Task: inverse folding
């Protein structure tokens, strides 16, 4: 057994043996903040056809909106994890929710490309500080052996945020209009910021704070996190599973369904709802039957990575529009496999010492968003280059997505664990 594993077990033993009173309330408010962040993150994917008209933009400019939003999220993942370990989740989550509210308001009132970009960047900043800090709450308020399941449950809550950003958001845009819909979302988000600062506490009363994170140099923390094979394996699992899911739900799903597959905006929203529901089911399966078991987790994430690559290959290789049953299966698989991305944080928690849990989650979370930024930009460029017909343009544009999926699956294989008689748990 390595010294790293000994350190990990020693620190985790300081966590509460059972969830103390108020644990579910504190985590629940944090998860509600993540729910709202996922709503704002995915809102442009559903509103993309309306955004093309409002901002008088083409596909490449629309891709820039989302790529900048996700790019800001990506850049801030490591700082988010470090702040979770050093400042505590309460302040960081509250500040992130405020940024989401302001970003939504700016996006609502803007009619120019510059204003739209500013709004999406603010949303990316707020979103960046949600997930890793909610996971930090889980690490502080729940026993170590429940961390993987709570992480998967957090992902499930986020999936519900995706659901609200599909059919309900489409209905609101058509019934209330752009300004009312996004200003209303900003107002509700601001109310949640008040609730967060009032309810969230960094740790249970009486739990001694682990101060190792404050005494360790940032560079040393990051080197220790990246050195773990489990961190690298989890990075590539998130790279594949979350990256492809974000490609569909944050931007290109609705335009692909309307222009290349021939559906109306409302029907496209309902189909994306199916993808979001698949994400919820995938998160539930991951949390109940896979989380907490290192070897099973790595085999499962590699298997679903290959499965979703097959789904994307089908989209690319199918001549013409996909038959509805095939399309339904493809979107369900993309969503279900996306839910498996939550296991990457179980892997990060298993591989790293407790006082580095925020940094480890931040590093792993970079994987999916790096893939998403790359695919958002490349898909937009290829669509502009190929032009029409739309069905052919999207088939070519999705080829780079498949390439990245296969590269990520290869990374998982290279950094798979070497499991022996002794387990990290």
Result:
């Amino acid at each position: 057994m390595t010294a790293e594993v000994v350190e990990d077990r020693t620190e985790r033993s300081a966590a509460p043996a059972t969830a103390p009173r108020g644990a579910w309330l504190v985590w629940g408010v944090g998860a509600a903040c993540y729910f709202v962040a996922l709503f704002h993150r995915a809102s442009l994917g559903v509103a993309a056809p309306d955004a093309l008209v409002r901002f008088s933009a083409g596909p490449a400019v629309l891709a820039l909106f989302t790529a900048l939003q996700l790019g800001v999220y990506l850049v801030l993942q490591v700082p988010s994890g470090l702040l979770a370990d050093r400042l505590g989740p309460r302040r960081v989550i509250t500040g992130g929710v405020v940024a989401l509210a302001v970003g939504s308001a700016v996006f609502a009132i803007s009619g120019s490309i510059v204003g739209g970009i500013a709004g999406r960047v603010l949303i990316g900043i707020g979103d960046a500080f949600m997930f890793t800090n909610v996971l930090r709450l889980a690490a502080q308020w729940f026993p170590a052996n429940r961390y993987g399941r709570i992480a998967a449950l957090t992902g499930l809550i986020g999936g519900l945020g995706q659901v609200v950003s599909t059919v309900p958001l489409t209905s609101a845009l058509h019934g209330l209009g752009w300004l009312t819909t996004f200003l209303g979302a900003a107002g509700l988000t601001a109310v949640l910021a008040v609730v967060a600062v009032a309810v969230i506490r960094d740790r249970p009363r009486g739990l001694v704070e682990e101060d190792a994170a404050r005494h360790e140099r940032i560079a040393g923390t990051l080197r220790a996190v990246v050195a773990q094979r489990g961190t690298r394996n989890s990075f590539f699992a998130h790279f594949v599973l979350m990256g492809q899911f974000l490609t569909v739900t944050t931007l290109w799903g609705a335009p692909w369904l309307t222009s290349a597959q021939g559906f109306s905006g409302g029907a496209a929203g309902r189909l994306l709802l199916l993808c979001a529901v698949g994400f919820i089911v995938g998160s539930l399966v991951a949390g109940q039957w896979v989380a907490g078991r290192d070897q099973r987790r790595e085999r499962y994430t590699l298997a679903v990575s290959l499965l979703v690559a097959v789904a994307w290959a089908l989209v690319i290789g199918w001549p013409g529009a996909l038959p509805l049953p095939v399309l339904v299966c493809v979107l369900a698989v993309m969503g279900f496999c996306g839910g498996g991305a939550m296991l990457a944080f179980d892997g990060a928690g298993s591989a790293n010492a407790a006082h580095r849990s925020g940094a480890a989650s931040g590093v792993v979370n970079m994987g999916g968003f790096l893939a998403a930024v790359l695919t958002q930009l490349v898909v937009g460029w290829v669509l502009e280059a190929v032009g029409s017909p739309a069905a052919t343009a999207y088939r070519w544009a999705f080829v780079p997505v498949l390439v990245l999926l296969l590269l990520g699956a290869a990374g998982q294989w290279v950094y798979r664990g070497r499991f022996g008689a002794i387990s990290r748990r």
